[in-house]
Specification:
60s Ribosomal Protein L30, Chain: A; about 220 residues; globular; five-stranded mixed β-sheet; alpha+beta
Length: about 220
């Protein structure tokens, strides 16, 4: 059985084949394919992977894979940044994914109930994240808001978008270039646990941040 990462890479290949034509796709080297995918990170290819794996944030990271020597260098830098983030943003879950980093905040850590205003207690975590992004400038971010399934679908979608936007705006206010930031709400469509229990609903109420190499990092 293929792992989620293997499945994701397979979907990337299929998407490229549809986009470039099978012959063109077959003629590209791994590094060249990675460059094409990376050029659309957080966009169409990342969205396709996200739909297939159930994680838009993870899809953006995998969609930006470069591979080769450049990818190895980026991976090493991401290792270091992830290590620092685990120390600097307690309460968040920091996971290395491919050549990027996924940071997950429980919504309760960032916002009060039914609110999209960043809590004062969360400010330190986001300031520390912004400082890390300043130290490692060759990355872009996709910030994805999620809710549980309680309430109307449209309301949950709007709330998740507002929360992702609020986190993005806070990072921008801390000096992170808005060109590096993209906010997206996914409402209740990407649960990580059952919505039948309060514990599961708490897990589903979250904000995920995908950190992946930007165009300048892809230049050897």
């Amino acid at each position: 059985m293929l792992s989620p990462v293997s499945k994701s890479r397979m979907f990337v290949t299929c998407t490229l084949a549809l986009t470039l034509g099978v012959a063109a796709c077959a003629s590209l080297s791994r590094k060249e394919k990675g460059a094409v995918i990376g050029a659309t990170a957080g966009g169409a290819v990342g969205g396709v992977i996200g739909n297939q794996t159930g994680s838009t944030a993870r899809g953006a990271i995998i969609g930006a894979v470069i591979g080769g020597t450049v990818g190895a260098v980026i991976g090493h830098q991401m290792d270091q940044q992830a290590k620092e983030l685990r120390q600097d943003i307690p309460g968040a879950t920091v996971t290395r994914v491919g050549e990027g980093i996924a940071v997950t905040f429980a919504s309760g850590l960032l916002y009060d109930f039914d609110s999209d205003v960043v809590r004062a207690a969360a400010a330190t975590n986001l300031r520390n994240l912004a400082a890390s992004l300043g130290k490692y400038p060759k990355t872009d971010l996709l910030i994805v808001g999620h809710t549980d399934s309680k309430g109307a679908d449209d309301y949950n979608q709007t709330l998740s978008q507002k929360r992702a936007t609020a986190a993005s705006n806070y990072l921008a206010a801390q000096g992170v270039s808005s060109a590096r930031l993209r906010a997206l709400g996914r409402g209740e469509t990407e649960p990580v646990a059952s919505n039948d229990t309060e514990t599961g609903r708490q897990s589903n109420r979250r904000v995920e941040i995908a950190i992946y190499a930007n165009a300048s990092a892809r230049t050897p």
